[in-house]
Structure formats: structure tokens, C-alpha cells
Amino acid sequence: MKAVITGSSTGIGLEMAKICLSQGMEVWMTGTRSERPNENSELFGLCPYLAVDLSTKEGQEAFLDWLGPEPIDVFVNNAGYGIWKDVVDTDPDSMEAMIRLNVEALTRFSREMAIRMKAQGYGRILNVASTAAFLPGPHMAAYYASKAYVLSFSDALSWELRGTGVTVTTLCPGPTRSRFFERAGMAAMPLLDGPWMPIMTAHSVAKAGINATLRGKRRAIPGIMNFLSSKAPIFMPRSIQLGTLNWLQGSK
Ligand SMILES: NC(=O)c1ccc[n+]([C@@H]2O[C@H](COP(=O)([O-])OP(=O)(O)OC[C@H]3O[C@@H](n4cnc5c(N)ncnc54)[C@H](OP(=O)(O)O)[C@@H]3O)[C@@H](O)[C@H]2O)c1
Fold first, then answer.
1. N or C: which end of the chain has fewer CB atoms below 10 A?
2. Which of 32-46, 62-76, 138-152, 166-180 has the lowest mean pLDDT?
3. What digits encode the pLDDT tens for the residues 133-146?
């Protein structure tokens, strides 16, 4: 089996790559940095690796060219990041680059893989969203909205592909130990400091995602608190959701 995982130079994607390798899959990896993951170098020496910025059209095309026409069994749209700033304080180019990665690249690769996997009669697509997909997120507004898009798009695509042998799984992690917080510029805040949302390891999140994907499940929400927060819209009015997220993600 061949697995391609975007954003696998570190964090959740790197853990997914390790899990797929341990299951005997051929793994193709990407990141933005030219250096390859240095831990387990003898293992990752076997994996093709592309350093590419997938937030650009040129990067997306270079990536698809690099993949070539060979069959892919498992494709993971994991590359993504957030920006922790109010909308009015965010540089518009940075915000658009994030949306191009989280939304545009994921949409383009999902479509491409759906076509290819449908033709081969088998395939597993895993799209990484977030518990942010279920709620509006003051101070990270565009990131939360991008993940709501990922969930909605992936759910609908999974339905369109019923009966084709191709499944689409959406992974919705909550706070997870990785470079995400540093990359987003997140500082001390109740969300990361309090007991409300336990921070999971990248390995346990990756394992839940890969397991659900191989079983063809539509959704994976690892962790009980994350599962409960995905249900918040059912019992919390929108204004309470906004107030709670505003507090959780506000500076201390
Ligand atoms: N950590 C969390 O709390 C959390 C919670 C919910 C959802 N998620 C989602 O989980 C996914 C993985 O995040 P993570 O926590 O593992 O974060 P991470 O440690 O920061 O890893 C992000 C990965 O994406 C790659 N990447 C970043 N910008 C890119 C770009 N412009 N083009 C191509 N690749 C790019 C990075 O490559 P380089 O390192 O080489 O730059 C890295 O491999 C993301 O979609 C994120 O939104 C994370």
C-alpha cells in the first residue's frame, strides 16, 4: 500500500508517517523545510520527501507532478496552520495564504485523489480538520472557518463517493502537542493552560486518524473532551459559544 501525507515533516503528520511505515506501507512525505525529519533517519531515508509550499498554485502543481500517475491507496491532507490574531490585525496576504493551504490545496488534492481512486476502485482519503470546525473562534476567525469548510466539504465528498470503494474520513483533533501553537503565534491563554481541554499527543491523534481511515469511517474525534466540544452547538446558543471561545483564546 502507498500512503502520501502532506505536512509530515513534523507533528501529527510525522506521527501518521511513522504509523503507516510500521504497518508496512510505502510512505511519501512533504514539508516546507528542505531538511528531512532527522529522527528515525534510517526509516525515513526510505521515504520520498518533497519540500514545497502548498499555499501557492506553483507549489500545488509541483506536488501533483512529483506524485506522478502511480496508484495511491491512502492520501492525507494534513498540512495546515492557524493564525492567532484578530482579523483587523492580520496581514491580508498571510490570511489568504493560510486559506489557500487549509482550503484550496485540500480541495484540489481531494478532487484529484477522488478521481484517481474512483478509477482504481479503491482508496482512502483523510482530511485533517479540527474541533474548530464545530464552533466560531474569535481571535482565530479565519482558521476556525477554514476548518468548518474542511468538515463540510469532506462529509459531502464522502457521500458523493459512496459505493465507489473510496472513503473520505475527517479527523477533528482538539489541542495537540506539536509546532502548531508556536507557528500560530499563540501565547499563554486559558485554552492551553487550564484543565478544560487536555492537550493530546500527536501520536495518539495520528493513530486515531489512521485507524478510522483504514476502517473507512467518516469521522474521527479523538479524546472525550474533544468529542463533547463537537456537540457544544447542540446545547449552547451561538452567543455562549462565541463568549466561551473569546475567553478561552484571549490573552491572559
Ligand atoms: N496541534 C493542534 O492543536 C491541532 C488541532 C487541530 C487541528 N490541527 C491540524 O492538524 C494539522 C497538522 O498540524 P500539527 O499540529 O501537526 O502542526 P505542525 O507541527 O505545525 O505541522 C504542520 C505541518 O504542515 C506543514 N506546513 C506548514 N505550512 C505549510 C505550507 N505552506 N505548505 C506545505 N506544508 C506546510 C509543516 O511543514 P514544515 O514544518 O516543514 O514547515 C508541517 O509538516 C493541521 O492541519 C492543523 O490545522 C492541529
1. C
2. 32-46
3. 999 999 999 999 99
The CATH number of residue 66's host domain is 3.40.50.720
Residue 143 is a catalytic residue: yes
The rounded Å distance from CA 80 to ligand 1 centre is 4
Query: Cβ distance 203 to 9 under 8 Å?
Result: no
DSSP 8-state class, residue 121: T
Residue 128: CB within 6 Å of ligand 1?
A: yes
Q: Which residues have CB under 8 Å from 103's CB, separation 6+?
A: 146, 149, 150
Structural domain count, the chain = 1
12: three-class secondary structure by DSSP: helix
Give 62-119 pLDDT, tens digit per residue.
999 999 999 999 999 999 999 999 999 999 999 999 999 999 999 999 999 999 999 9
* Alpha helices, H only, 68-201: 92-99, 106-120, 141-160, 180-184, 190-193
Ligand 1: atom nearest CA of 77 is: 45
CB 172 within 8 A of CB 131: yes
For a ligand 1 pocket test, name from 10, 104, 210 the mutation site with the most ligand atoms within 8 angstroms of its C-beta. Answer: 10
Query: What contacts 216, CB < 8 A, 6 or more positions away?
Result: 124, 167, 169
Its domain, for residue 239, covers 2-248
